[in-house]
Write a structure and sequence with these properties.
Largest sheet: 2 strands, antiparallel
CATH architecture of the largest domain: Orthogonal Bundle
Order of helices and strands: HHHHEE
Number of strands: 2
CATH class of the largest domain: Mainly Alpha
CATH superfamily of the largest domain: Winged helix-like DNA-binding domain superfamily/Winged helix DNA-binding domain
Helix content: 55-70%
Length: 142
């Protein structure tokens, strides 16, 4: 009986430790995601300050209010080095506390691409800001 009790206590102890480690892993992954977003933001700010990019519209943390279009364009604008798939937009928004309906986002992205506001890569199925046109050199008027 003592052996059975010891085995039960050991299993319970192992389950408790597993649960603790899984919770810690989840927390660390969340920290990594947060730091990754922070690094992208810093890189984006540096690029904007160097004049390489234009600043996106700010993302509003909304709770049932605000523009889905602003949120979507802001998220895509934060990822100039690669596009985002519909699910990426929904997941990034959710990570910031903004719940977006996947079908609404897909419809909006499709419409923005059709209107030329976004570029769509059929191979990767990603949406991105279209390439920025090269500035025209200024001419001096004599």
């Amino acid at each position: 009986m003592a052996s059975r009790m010891s085995t039960h206590q050991t299993l319970l102890s192992l389950k408790t430790e597993r649960d603790r480690l899984e919770s810690k892993l989840k927390d660390k992954r969340s920290e990594i995601d947060s730091l990754d977003g922070e690094l992208r933001g810093i890189n984006r700010a540096i690029a904007i300050l160097k004049g390489l990019e234009h600043a996106p519209a700010p993302i509003e943390q909304r709770r049932g209010r605000g523009s889905v279009k602003d949120v979507v364009l802001g998220l895509i604008g934060e990822h100039p080095d690669g596009g985002l798939k519909t699910v990426d937009v929904v997941d990034l928004a959710k990570a910031r506390g903004v719940d977006l309906d996947r079908n609404s986002v897909a419809s909006l992205l499709s419409r923005l691409a059709r209107d030329g506001i976004l570029a769509y890569d059929k191979d990767t199925r990603q949406y991105s800001l279209p390439p920025r046109p090269e500035p025209t050199p200024l001419r001096s008027v004599a």
